[in-house]
Design goal:
The protein has 230 residues and is an alpha/beta fold. Helices cover 49% and strands 16% of the residues. The protein has one domain: Rossmann fold. The two termini are 30 Å apart. 40% of the residues are buried. The structure holds cytidine-5'-monophosphate.
Length: 230
């Protein structure tokens, strides 16, 4: 039997608030590819732990949840995602900064990362995958056809996160958010396993002062130049 051709993957990595979630979703919709929101998987592990009443430092029990939790990603019909955990909708709860902090804590544990590896790779299905995260280009999809590392100034990232939370009707405080984002960046980029850093072959895009549409255009042109889409 002939081996099936590899599924093309575009990775979009970067720090919190760099806009990679929105850009990835727009890009996936535009080219008709699947989307992997890998940050949501880490958030789901942390949330599952809270719901199961686990001690926050219980690595083995969180790892077991990373393997067994039942997650479902759907389109919400309004341009966003709807995420379910063990059948219950958790989309809004998952977006809180508290869930992000919990995710960043469990994401520093190698067994949790290993447990999520195959789950993430399984998202690569024809016609292609846009993978959004921190280590998509460095660890999960090192053979990706196109790697983007999206960044923006710390001020702009905090402000974007603030607006995003406000739009979703959540409470937000800009000064506290800036502090939390800086803390999360620090933890994500200094951890021993899969730290946040651009892959050597990634194209770095600084989105400070750019609109989502402008960033999507940059990625679309890069993909077109590589023959990934028309
Ligand atoms: O992207 P998002 O803010 O949802 O990610 C939440 C946290 O999950 C990050 O701060 C990071 O610690 C972790 N994460 C990761 N590797 C990924 C995606 C997210 O470590 N590929």
């Amino acid at each position: 039997m002939a081996a099936s051709p590899p599924v093309p993957v575009v990775t979009i990595d970067g720090p919190s608030g760099s806009g990679k979630g929105t850009v990835s979703r727009e890009l996936a919709r535009h080219v008709g590819w699947h989307l992997l929101d890998s940050g949501a998987l880490y958030r789901l592990v942390a949330l599952s732990g809270v719901r199961a009443g686990l001690r926050p430092d219980d690595v083995a029990a969180h790892t077991a949840l990373a393997r067994t939790m039942a997650v479902q990603f759907d389109d919400d019909g309004r341009g966003g995602e709807r995420i379910r955990l063990d059948g219950a909708e958790v989309t809004r709860e998952l977006r809180s900064e508290a869930a992000g902090q919990g995710a960043s804590r469990v994401a520093a544990w190698p067994p949790v990362r290993a447990a999520l590896l195959e789950r993430q790779r399984a998202f690569a299905e024809p016609p292609g995958l846009v993978a959004d995260g921190r280590d998509m280009g460095t660890v999960v999809f090192p053979e990706a056809a196109l790697k983007i590392y999206l960044t923006a100034s710390a001020e702009e990232r905090a402000l974007r996160r603030y607006k995003q939370l406000k739009e979703k009707g959540s409470d937000a405080n800009l000064a506290a958010l800036s502090r939390e984002i800086a803390e999360r960046d620090q933890r994500d980029s200094t951890r021993a396993v899969a730290p946040l850093r651009p892959a050597p072959d990634a194209r770095i895009v600084d989105s400070t002062g750019m609109s989502v549409a402008e960033v999507v255009d940059v990625v679309l042109s890069a993909g077109r130049a590589q023959g990934l889409w028309g």
